[in-house]
Fold:
Amino acid sequence: MKDITLGQYYNVDSIIHALDPRTKLVLTFAYLILVFLVSKLWAFGLVALFAISIIYLSKVPFKMVLKALKPMRFLLVLMFLLNLFAAKSGEVLLKWWIFEITAGGIRQAVFIVIRLLLLVAGTTLMTFTTTPISLTDGLEKLLAPLKKIGFPSHELAMMMTIALRFIPTLLEEADKIMKAQLSRGADLESGNIIKRAKSMIPILVPLFVSAFRRADELAMAMESRCYHGGEGRTKMRVIAFKKRDAIAFLIFASAFALILVLQKLVVF
Amino acid sequence: MSIVAEKLTHIYLEGSPNESVAIDSIDLKIEAGEFWGIIGHTGSGKSTLVQHLNALMQPTSGRICVDGDDLKDKKNRREARKKVGLVFQYPEYQLFEETVLKDIAYGPMNMGESTEKAYEIAREAMVSVGLSPDEIEGRSPFELSGGQKRRVAIAGIIAIRPRYLVLDEPMAGLDPRGRKDILNLLKTLREKTGCAVIMISHSMDDIAQFADHVAVLNEGKLYKAGSVAEVFSDMEALRRTGLDIPQAAILAERLKKQGIEIDRSIYTVEQMLDFITEKTGGVSG
Structure:
């Protein structure tokens, strides 16, 4: 459980940390689109270079980003193999029984791995540099215009905040229940997969019961403090769009435009 | 037949910046059949200590033996969980089965009893916590009252038939009546089965009245341990740790200040009552 770095905040002071969460959300989104628009190997190199310079600016150690990528290794291998054999286009390089490796297949397999790596590195950097609270605040502000068509942006943000807040609490609770059942002789380690899944019931049932109980209590506590949704609610920390956000937008826009234009113009 | 802790130390997150010493070289010997009270402030290491007793936690250094078997050896751990029954704080939150009977039988079945036998043991455990099997065994544990749930959870551990019953604040959150019921059932259970009881409690009065031995923890260290009479003979030392002192002992102290001679140590209400009836010749008022 300790190895889960995805969605974790890394507390240092940097220009990236200081940006408005809305800026980071929008730019991360733009970056995701860019990663899918790029389709040449050297262009991926440029994107990676750009991502690396942003990581450098954020003062988050590269080691931390790599650690976040580590849990993906099985997924990457799987995606690579699937694409290698499934995508069939271009010259056939190897043929064995029903398996066929084509030039197009290799290309697509390599691309999908690079894309996934760049995607996760980018989004991880966002969560590394933005606290969950300001992230949900930013999301709420971004989605605010949708309120006009009845979209519950504040409620959605509140739900996200609460969910994030309760992850450590529930982990702790799970640990406690697990220990309690171990004390009653529960065997969680041996047996086949069905037996092991069954042995999780005594842990999952109390965990769900407790999650619902906590939700109930929290709802009651919020209501007794007169919470009634986002209507007319002010924030303690007001997020504001500053000059550095404008600069960030400019830099990102020009870098992305440059990469896309180069890709279009250069033939190879 | 005893649980022995030697230089038992547990450090959380050792080597990280958040490292903290939960318990620090604790030496303790609990003999079979004894009734121990464990007291100490929040964060003094009581819960960490008791989780070592049935090998849920492993010591950072030092060792712990149950009936001579070192719990460092993995083979001994399962046996230790059978011998040492641990009731967690708010144990009612671990109930999960459809019926009370099945829930209580979960422990004995894990320990290898047949379903028939486990149900039989479960019914006995129900009786020993003061619940009537006919009334309650078929009901869902989730529809019981708070006090009943607590008893069902304790019965779930009693059904393992431990030689040492360890309870982490078994009375937390109960009303005075519920507290008394739990204490009395522990007393009866010990008399009937001869099992040792090790109970964490914040109430000095309860410990003074029911336990025969006390361990006082302070900031992870064993501050005092011994018979109730020994530990309560030095009230000043207890007061220095900021712990409460039994009501009867406070009264005895005040009487002494008033110039009344008290020829014995008094720390329970019964002792005080005996003393007063003796002094006044049994005449009340």
In short: The beta strands of chain A are 92-96, 99-102. Chain A has eleven helices and two strands.
